[in-house]
Structures are given as structure tokens and as C-alpha cells.
Amino acid sequence: MRSFLHAAGASCVLALTALLPSCGGESNATDTPVLTFTAIPDQNTTELEQRFDRVAAYLSEELGIEVDYVPVTDYTASVEAFTNGDVQLAWFGGLTGVRARRAVEGSRAIAQGTIDPEYVSYFIANPASGLTPGGKGPFPTEAFRGKSFTFGSDSSTSGRLMPEYFIRENTGQSPAEFFGQDNRYSGSHDKTWEAVQNGSVELGALSYTTYDKRLAEGKIDPEQCFIAWITPGYPDYSWNAHPAIDEMFGEGTIDRLQEALTSITDQELLVALDRPEGMMAATNEDFAPLVDLADQLGLLR
Fold it and tell me: Is 174 helix (H, G, I), strand (E, B) or coil?
């Protein structure tokens, strides 16, 4: 094992649009299928929409088909939209990807960022916690014990699954037992650092890329919200294709889609994908460790 170790509303509108007759009383003039995709809302939703609209335009041009981005309200909605076939392509975290692929036979992880096979989480803290900045190394069990703490989304890999795994592995306790409180979930990575920075909680866990980005943007004050511990690496995010893509657009479309995503060199587009370091191919087998771990923790449902 490697080191480690509006969706419903929008889909209804799309479905109704497809069923409504044209003004002339005949079926839609073109009946041209549209490839729709979504992404887990792990960051600011307005920012996500701006980024992924750019990705949609690129894929439309590369594939010669219409591609639209459909935002969702939460992580669960993204999995449901994919499972129901309301979207045919999705940017998932490791855990949401595992859940979606398990629910849809024949679905495939096709692409990921070059950083994603060895992703990490940050445990971040504020000065009121009495903690000091840290990095990689042994889990600071006694320093963290009993602190007020928040995960991100309850379905997040970097904001919940892996932080919970490392807490359990290093302390022999559940997070609730270790921190002395019921599990708390902020809802997203951005909400986690905001809660730590404003003092709502002393400690939180989140995706390292979100923290690094917000720090570079000047939104995070490193004096008030600093890194207390960095986890070992683990596999995380990926682009996932529903088998309906080949049915809708012809055999081989998923392979063309994979090529379109992994061959991107334009830096602005890579930034829109939130993977400026580059993209690479992915397979379902890359996430086998997460399947086993999520099963152990009872997080597959």
C-alpha cells in the first residue's frame, strides 16, 4: 500500500427541457445530447462556477459536443447526481469517488492532478489553542487531546476520512473520544479555516491545497491560523466518467475525454482545474486503499 495510507433542481430543469415540445409542436429541434458535469463543492461556490465554466468551454471545443457545468449544494448531492445519471462526469474527492463508482457499475476514474496520488491534509490551529506551528512527524497526541475541533464535510477525504483515520491510528480512540466532543463538520475546507481563524474552534482539518491557496491570496492570517501537523500522503481527487457517456456520444468518447483532460498544458486552464502542477491518467485501482479504509470506518453507504 502506498504511503498514507441547486443539483436536484438543475437536473429537473434539464430533464423538463428535454421533454418539452418546441413552439411548432414538434420535438426539440436538434435533440442533441449535452454532457453535464459537476464537482464537489469543497470551496467557494461562486469561484467553482467561474472555474468550471471555463473547463466546460474547453471540453466542448475538444470533444465537439456541448458540455455544461451543473453546481450542486453539497457532497451528497454530487454523488446522487452522478448515480442518477443527471450528470455524466464529476470531479470527486477520494471518498465521494469511491461511493459514486460503487453505485454505478462501469463508471471509471479517468484523470487526476499529478499531486493527487500523494495528497495530504493539514491540521490547523489558532494561538488560543496553546498549540505551536508544526509539520510532518509523529501525531501530536497529547498536544491535540481535548481541543475543540472540526472536520470539513462529513464526506470529504482530506477534511474527514483521512484525518479520522490518522486520529484513530495514532490515539486508539475515535475523534469524539479523543477530543471529548461530538464530531463537528464545518461543511467545506473554506469554512474550516474560517472557523479556526475566527476562534470558533481551536483546531481543524482540511485540504492542504485550499489552505495554501487562501494563504497566498492573503485571506488566511498565518499568525491566527497556522499549520499544526501535516499527514502522510494518500490518494485523493479524480475526474470520473459515467458509462452513459459512450452510450450518448459514441464508443470511445470516454477515452477522448480522458485524453482531453490529461493533455492540458495551458496554465490558465490548469489553474481553472485547480491543478496548476498538471494532470495525469487515473484508474479505479488507484483508490483501492480508500475503499478498504472507508469500509473499516463504516463510511461507505
Answer: coil
